[in-house]
Amino acid sequence: MRCQYIGADVLDLAETMVASDGLKYEPVNFELSPEQRLWHMTLLHIQERLRVEHSLQDVLFKAAIKGARPAPPHSEDSSTSYTACRIHGHLYVNKVAGNFHITVGKSIPHPRGHAHLAALVSHDSYNFSHRIDHLSFGEGIPGIINLLDGTEKVSPDSNHMFQYFITIVPTKLNTYKVSADTHQYSVTERERAINHAAGSHGVSGIFMKYDISSLMVRVTEQHMPLWQFLVRLCGIIGGIFSTTGMVHSMVGFLVDVVCCRFKMGIYKPPKEAPLIEQENSETSVPTESSLQQ
């Protein structure tokens, strides 16, 4: 939808409407140029790889990625009849559950609640097909890619409600390169068509209902000192020598047992030695006394 027909703001659990002065509305075309489509496909490919790895330190906080860069700007020779609106910026919200929504009409202050003025917009033009380039909470960290980055929802029909139920998890990152407090989040998506005649009531738009988790994730990078590595290395080498000596002693004991049982390796004198001595005594040379006789 065009920028003059929609409004975006935040309403938290305390019924406090957060000022949306930090958001900017830029008229664009929903169809992407070849350069923008290439950037979007690259972002989707990185998102797919991150879901496969499931690693906080080695994947989600890679310094080489340096975060998802913004989409390439539109060319100057594009058509002036823009059909969509690009909303970008930042908001300061309270640390309570809230609802960030983009719906038909500009928000107006109301003493009894929250309202959007949409009387001059035709219901047939309620098409909230959207594309999320980047959505994050807290301080921006180089290298982190969030779950909704690269999400694209296209609705061929009008009067659709897109809902994102977000659970924000505070995360403290402490590495040798980065030390910061950021926030991750998990998302549950839901979409449905608005048809009051069929009993499907509601308001067309994009609704992101977020809540802060009571848990906190701490990511810490630690390295082993050199002296500890040397001590462990000496222990491993000593264990190898001790085990080798035990194996050598055991093998020697088994060899001794087998050789003693089967009398293997015992020296036996030759049996022909007495016969040879007897033959030598019988053929002895006669002495001089016997010859004189």
Per DSSP, the total helix count is 5
Characterize the overall form: elongated
* Number of spatially distinct domains: 2
Number of strands: 14
Q: Which sequence of SSEs, written as H and E, runs from N to C?
A: EEEHHEEEEEEEEEEEHHH
Average pLDDT rating: 77
Largest sheet: 8 strands, mixed
Structure classification: alpha+beta
Helix percentage range: 25-40%
Distance between the termini: 152 Å
Radius of gyration: 43 Å
- Low-pLDDT regions: 59-69, 289-293
**Strand coverage percent:** 25-35%
Describe the structure.
The chain folds into 2 domains: 218 residues, no CATH class; 57 residues. Helix content is 26%, strand content 30%. The chain contains 5 helices and 14 strands. Strands 1, 2, 5, 9, 11, 12, 13 and 14 form an 8-stranded mixed β-sheet that branches. Strands 3-4 form a two-stranded antiparallel sheet. A hairpin with a 4-residue loop joins strand 11 and strand 12. It is elongated, with a radius of gyration of 43 Å. The C terminus is likely disordered.
How would you briefly describe this protein structure?
With 293 residues, the chain is α+β, with helices and mostly antiparallel strands. The protein has 5 helices and 14 strands. Residues 82-247 form the Endoplasmic reticulum vesicle transporter C-terminal domain.
Give the arrangement of secondary structure elements.
Layout: E1 6-12, E2 17-18, E3 23-28, H1 34-53, H2 56-60, E4 84-89, E5 98-104, E6 106-110, E7 113-117, E8 130-132, E9 137-138, E10 151-153, E11 160-174, E12 179-193, E13 205-212, E14 217-220, H3 226-261, H4 273-282, H5 288-292
Parallel strand pairs: 11-13, 11-14
Antiparallel strand pairs: 1-2, 1-5, 3-4, 5-13, 6-7, 8-10, 9-12, 11-12
